[in-house]
Amino acid sequence: MLALIWLQGALRYNADIARQRTEAARIAQAEIERLRSFAAVDAAPGRLSWGDITDEVLDATPSASPTTYLLTRVVQTDDRLMLKTVQVRLSWNDRRGQPQQFSLETQIVGHDPALAGTMTLPRIAFARP
Predict the structure, then answer these.
(1) Nearest alpha carbon to residue 89 among 107, 67, 104
(2) How many domains does the chain have?
(3) What does pLDDT average to in each consecutive run of 10 residues of the chain (129 residues)?
(4) Within a domain: residue 120?
(5) Can you name the residues that pair with 57 across neighbouring β-strands?
(6) Residue span of the structural domain in which 28 resides
(7) 3 state SS of 80
(8) pLDDT of residue 60
(9) Which candidate, 58, 61, 62, 40, places its Cα nearest to that of 50?
(10) Which H/E stretch holds residue 38?
(11) Is residue 69 part of a domain?
């Protein structure tokens, strides 16, 4: 009987950790997609720009969530390549007070989003004289 009680507690704890990791993955993915949807390369009022993608620490706890998530965004910029390497890390404490962490990393190119459609145009072949 004692083993059954221990098993139920372990199952609840592991299910809680799985829920928290899934929620952290969803939050990190949403943040990366938000950053990828920048509207301009240069700063524009009221719009997310490539230049606005910087280091940041913020509370990312969803409403009605029993877990408090801290989102840390670390950005490394390569101005020569117009490339930003972004790491989105979420940290929280589980029900036992143990620190947990989840992170995703991506690269975002600083090309003007208005020109994205030009990638679908056929290549023009130039004849050599």
Answers:
(1) 104
(2) 1
(3) 71 87 96 90 79 93 92 95 95 94 94 70 68
(4) no
(5) 72
(6) 2-112
(7) coil
(8) 93
(9) 40
(10) none
(11) yes
Cα distance between residue 21 and residue 17, in whole Å: 6
124 falls within a domain? no
Contacts of 62-69 with C-beta under 8 Å, sequence gap 24+, read: 62/23, 62/27, 65/23, 67/20, 67/23, 67/92, 68/92, 68/93, 69/23, 69/24, 69/27
33: nearest Cα among 100, 102, 101, 104: 104
Q: pLDDT at position 42, please?
A: 77
Per-residue model confidence (pLDDT) at position 56: 95
* 70-78 sheet: strands from edge to edge: 56-59, 70-78, 83-93, 99-109
Instruction: Please say whether the beta carbons of 8 and 16 come within 8 A.
Output: no
Q: Is residue 129 part of a domain?
A: no
pLDDT (0 to 100) of residue 97: 92
User: Do residues 113 and 53 make contact, with C-beta atoms less than 8 angstroms apart?
Assistant: no
pLDDT of residue 100: 96
